[in-house]
Fold each of these.
Amino acid sequence: MAARARLTFEMSRLFLNDDGRILKDHNEDLTRWRRARKTFVLPASAAGAGADLWFIAAPYDGGGGVPLRVRLNGRALGRITGSPPNLSWHRLRVGKGRLRAGANQFDFECDTPAMNAWKLGIAGRAGRSGSAISFDGGESWQNDCMGLYGALTGEYVVRLRSRSAALHDPAPGKVVYPDPKHPKLAELRRMIPRSVTRSSDPWRRLLALRTWVATRWSHDPFGPPYCPWDAPTILDWARRDRGHSGRGKVAMCVHFGVVFASLATALGFRARCIAVTRAIGSNDGHFLCEVLDQEQGRWILHDANFDLHYEDDRPLSAVDVAQRIGDGASMKDCVRAGRGLPTKPARVVEAYRRLIRSGDCCRLISVWRRMDFMTDPSVAPGHHGSVAYLEPQWVWFDPSREETAMFPLRTGEKWFARS
C-alpha cells in the first residue's frame, strides 16, 4: 500500500499501527493453514494490566458454525462465533496478567481447510510493522503476499486498549484546513453558479449552496466504485453515472457532504466533515458538514443530502443535536429543510423518516481532522460508509463512551466548539 503520513500515539491507552483505510472487498481469509498474527510491543506500564482486543472481521454466511479462534502468546484467549456477514468490530477481554512488557502476539485462525469461515480486515500501515501471515499453520511467518489475492503488504485492523491507569489517551490536536490561496480552491469557486453566490448575506449564500449541491444527483449507494473525496470528480461521475474504468459509481451522503464542505471552503467559509451514526458498525449512519458562523462564533450542522439543518431558537451544532438525542429528545420539530429535500426514491425517503428527521443518526458524532484533503488527496479516507470509517484521524465526541474505545481520539465539548 502507498506510504502515508504516520500517526504515533505515545503512552496512549490504545495501541494500533493500522491507518484504518480498510479494503472492504479484499480481506484476509483464515483457515487452519492460513493464520494471521498481530504483534503489539507494549511498555512496562501496560504489562500486567487488563485490556480489550478490538478487531474487524466478518464470517462467511453467518460463520458456518466454525468459530474464529484467537491466541495470545501461544495460549487460547477466546473465540468469536457467527454474526451478520459483514465486516464489524469484535471485542475480546484480556485479563490481568496476560500481557507482558515487550512483544505480545495475537494469532487468528479457523479450523477449516477452505476459505469459508472468517475474514480479518486489512488496511494500510501507520507505524512499525505488526502484522504477519502464515501459510503453514504457524510454522513460519511473513509480512507480504497478504490478503485474498496475495497482493498486499498491510496491517490487520486489530487494536488493543489497555486498562492501565498509567496510560492516557492523547489530545486530538487542531483540525487541519487547506491553504485558502491554493489554486484548487480557486478552481472550485469557478464551478459554483452565480445564482448561489449573488446574495451578500453569508447565511443565505450558504443555504443556496446547500440546495444546489442537494439537487445535483440522486443518492446512489449501488455502483461498484466509490467516488473519492474530490468535489470535481464527484460532480462529474454523478452527472454522467460513470466512474472508474467506465463503470457506475457510488455517490451517497458522504459525497454530498464532501462537495458541500469543499465548495463552502472555496467561498471562504470554514467547514469540516462530520460522520455520525446511531451505533458503531451499524447501517444507521450518515454524513454531514459543519460550517462556522463567524458572526455567532458557533458551528452549525448542515445536511447537504437532505438540504436541511436543525434549529431550536438558533441553528444547532452537531454536539447540540447529539446531546439532545442523548437526553431522549427528538429533532422532528427542529428540522428546517430547503427546496432540495428529496422526495424519491422510496429508500431515501424512508431513511429521512426513520433516522434524519428524528436526529437518531446523530447519537455518535465525529469530526475528520484533515480537511486539507481538498488540496491533498492522500489524507482523505478511502472507502466510505458504516464500518469503513476506521481511520485514527476521526475525533469522536465524549471520551467516556465505551463503544468508541477502538478509536484513539475521543474528546469533549470544548474541542468541538473551537477546532
Amino acid sequence: MSVPSNLDAEKAFLSCVIQSISILNEAADYASPKLFHHPAHKRIFESALELWKEGKDCDLVTLTDAMSNAGTLELSGGAAFLTECFMSPSVTSNWREYLEILRQNHTRRLAVSAAERIIASAQNPAEAGELSEVVQKALVAVAADAESKGRIESLKEVALARISAYEEIYKNKGRLIGVTTGFKPLDDLTGGFREGQLIVIGAATKGGKTSMAVNMATRAANAGHPVGFISLEMSSGELFDRFVASYGGVDVSVLSKAPTAQDIGNIGRAAHQASLLPIFIRDEGDVNPLQLRAAMRRMCAVHKTRIIVVDYIQLLSPTDRKDSRERQVAEASRTLKQLAKELGITIIALTQLNAEGASRESRAIEHDCDLFLVIERDDSGNWYLNIKLARACGRASIPLAFRESYMRFDEK
C-alpha cells in the first residue's frame, strides 16, 4: 500500500517559502516539518525555520549556506536538489493550498499508522481485553496531532470584527442576542447563551441539575432553537417523563403510578406537546470523549442543534483508563470546551458538587467553562441559581421557585 503523500506539493510549498520571507513569517506559526513525507523536504523546511527563528533572511543562497554549515545539505540531495525545489513550479499566492495538501496527507498517514496499530492489536490474542482502549487511543492520537489552522491576528483585524458585533448589539438593543436561558434575570445578566460557550451547572446529588437542564432545554426549544440532550444517567423514556411533567404540566407522580382516565387524557395532551419540541436525545451509559465528539457532530450536522446538554460530566467514560480520575475528568471538561468552539454551539454540562461546593473529582471543570452556575437551597428551603464564575458578568444570585410536582424551576 502506497503511503499518502504529494511530493510536488511539498516542493511547491518549499519554493514559496524560499521565495518569500513574508510567507515563511506566516507559515512558521502553524506549519511543521512533520507535515512533509520526503526526508529531504523535511530537513529543508527545518533549516528554513532555524533561519527564521534566528531572525535571518531565508533565500536560496542563505539556506544553502546554512544547510552546508549544519552538515545537512548533502543528506538532502545537495545544492542541486535544493535548487530544484526552489525552481519547482509554484504560485506564491497558492502557498496555503499547498500547505493544506501537506496537512491532509499527513493526517492520512497518521490514520494509516493508527489502523496498522489497531490491526496488530486485533490479531494479538494477548491484547484482546485492551483492544477497545487501543482503538480509542489510536484515533485520539490522530485527532490530537492535527495541525492547528489558527492564525495570528492584529488588534486592528480583531477590532473590525468586534466593532461589527458591537453595532449588532446596539441595533438589537432590548432584544436578546444569544439563545434564551429560560430565566429573564439570567438572560439580562449574560445576554443569553452564545456560540462557543461551555456552561456548567453544578449541584449536590439530587440537587436539581437535570430539572434545571430540562427547563433550559425546553424553553430554548420552545423559542425555536434545536437542542441535543446526551443523557449518561437517565434513559430516553425517563427523560421524556421529565419533559412531559415540566413542559406539559403533569404531576410527575402520576407518571409512575396507575393513572385515572382523566390523568390519561392530561398525559396524552402533555406528551403530544412535548413531542413537538425540537429536542433530540441520546441515552447511553458508556460514552468516552471521543464518542461524545462523534455524537455531537452528528447532532449538529443532522439536527442543526444550537445547544447540547451533557448529563453529567463525571459519568463520561475515560479515554485512558490508566490515568488518574482527576485527569480523566479534566480531559472530558477540556473536550467539551473544544467542541463548543469547534461546532459553534453552546454546551451545557452538568456536574456533581462535593461537600465544599466545588466540582467533584476535578477543578478543571470550573476553569474551562465560560459560566459556572450553582443550584443551592438554603436552610429555609429557598432555592437560588448562583453565578459563581463568569467571563462576561459578575457574580449574582437569582431566587427561584421549585415546583416539585412538575420538576420545574420558575422565576420567583
